[in-house]
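For the sake of clarity, the format in which proteins appear in this thesis is described at this point. The record quoted next illustrates the convention:

___
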Amino acid sequence: MALSLFTRRPTVPPDTATWTPAGTTVVQRYRGAVGAGEGAIVLVYTADGDQGSSSFAAACLGCTYRVTRNQYDTAWLSETQAADLANTHAAGCRALDRGIPARPGDDQAAKIVRDRLWGLRPRGTTSPDYVFLRNFHADRVALQRPADFINESMLQLAESEPDFVTVQPHSSGRGVQFLVQPHPPRD
């Protein structure tokens, strides 16, 4: 039997213990325990940002746990805070490791971006809110896309739905800023 230079090698799926979602930097991992078995992995990560300072998030690969802000929802998480929350979650989570989530298609990923923007839409005011890349930290495990994809999705929304998302030049003179417009007033 002759070996060919073009013999296919079987593809080995990535291990959740070493997997990093696109656009993120995983800084810590915690594994839960379910009885005698190993439970889900909880990631502590940061992502491409636009504010000059790092904020962190924690996400469980076994359940729906995602956290990006402190318990009072008043501040973004530091690495230490995210690690503490991830460790606490891993200790109590009974979910089994579900493996790496399927990477959504571009249309589904764009819908994730749109859904996040819809949730950021201000209520009870006439002032728009600025949108930052860190607003998408909780979605990075599901999105599996870099910041460029998020920015491009927001640009497309600004073109197609200017009453929902607008874009303006950044005050620093470099790049643009996105604003999510408030809900229209009820009659």
In short: The chain has a mean pLDDT of 88. The radius of gyration is 20 Å. Residues 29 and 43 are 5 Å apart (CA to CA).
